Amino acid sequence: MATDYYAVLGVQRDASQDEIKKAFRRLARELHPDVNPDPKTQERFKEINTAYEVLSDPQKKQVYDLGGDPTSGAAAGGGPGGFGAGFGNFSDIMDAFFGTASQRGPRSRTRRGQDAMIRLDIDLEEAAFGTTKEIQVDTAVVCGTCSGEGAAPGTSAQTCDMCRGRGEVSQVTRSFLGQVMTSRPCPQCQGFGTVVPTPCPECAGDGRIRSRRTLTVKIPAGVDNGTRIQLAGEGEVGPGGGPAGDLYVEIHENAHPTFQRRGDDLHCTVTIPMTAAALGTKVPLETLDGMEEVDIRPGTQSGQSIPLHERGITHLRGGGRGQLIVHVEVTTPAKLEPEQEELMRRLAKLRGEERPQGQFQPGQQGLFSRLKDAFNGR
């Protein structure tokens, strides 16, 4: 071969694609005409572009390594016009007919940023009535040094001289179908159509930097575990100072020591002695609205529920609130003093309950018994 492309880029013949790309970028920064306008340097710049165009394309690289001419598509041992002439570039031919290789114009350096999500822990009272919280978010923001342009102050992006701003380069190859023109992203500007000779030192040409911000979030009344609040435009700024994505705040509700939430209703259990259940009483309860008294009526049985209306969680959509449901659990004394036992015996005698017969009902079936009866058609 007249030209050793590996030597032009200064890499070994077994160099990886990453090593080839790094070598090209290093030489391109040194020999770019905007940096070094010397005519000899410009010729050298064209040589490294040609070498990179061949070695960065797996098919051209294979043709070159086999001793063929990668610029014509003819591999070693293949005759012109035959199946050996460019048959390895069949994908290029299909790309030329269906337009899959060309992106039709330069890519924009400005793109929308990604969405972000943060978890926020709140208490039950805050979920019930709503609140306002301040949160700290680490996201990408527009670089203040270059205002998102990516170029150092006093400089700007320049039109790529390889693709003349089109973002793509064309190549004519020979195949069994004849001459075919294919288009690929420009290797010098990566398809942008422009190059940044002097990147911004603050953001390294990305147009954005990481920063911590403090945001105020309004939490509406009625939110629950997993509720997501969308803050439009508060996510990450895109590359090139592009529009920011959205920030989602996911609510996590802390456990309450007294109440258990089920939907918009609250549940709790109060334990009272059997004398209070028989005679009735009033039990103080600290609700979300303050101290209230729960009225235990005489004759209340264990397992009964007492609803307190409009004492639950505010409905997220629509007015009103859920209920606070108090479950009553009646305890029976396990040990009695002699005087207490005497009083209980007298009470049982007065009520005719010295030898109660009891009322028997069918026992409640377990899960496996119910499944068995269902299969047996009972």
Automatic annotation (TrEMBL):
Q: Which Gene Ontology molecular-function terms are recorded? A: ATP binding; heat shock protein binding; unfolded protein binding; zinc ion binding
Annotated region Disordered: the residues are 351-378
**Zinc finger (CR-type) locations?**
130-212
Q: Spans of biased composition, class Low complexity?
A: 357-366
Which InterPro entries does UniProt cross-reference here? DnaJ, DnaJ_C, DnaJ_domain, DnaJ_domain_CS, HSP40/DnaJ_pept-bd, HSP_DnaJ_Cys-rich_dom, HSP_DnaJ_Cys-rich_dom_sf, J_dom_sf
Which SMART domains has this protein been placed in? DnaJ (SM00271)
- Entry cofactor note text? Binds 2 Zn(2+) ions per monomer.
Domain J, which positions? 4-68
Gene Ontology CC terms = cytoplasm
Question: What cofactor does this one take?
Answer: Zn(2+)
Family according to the record:
Belongs to the DnaJ family.
Q: What is this protein called?
A: Chaperone protein DnaJ
Q: Which organism is it from?
A: Streptomyces boncukensis
**Gene field:** dnaJ
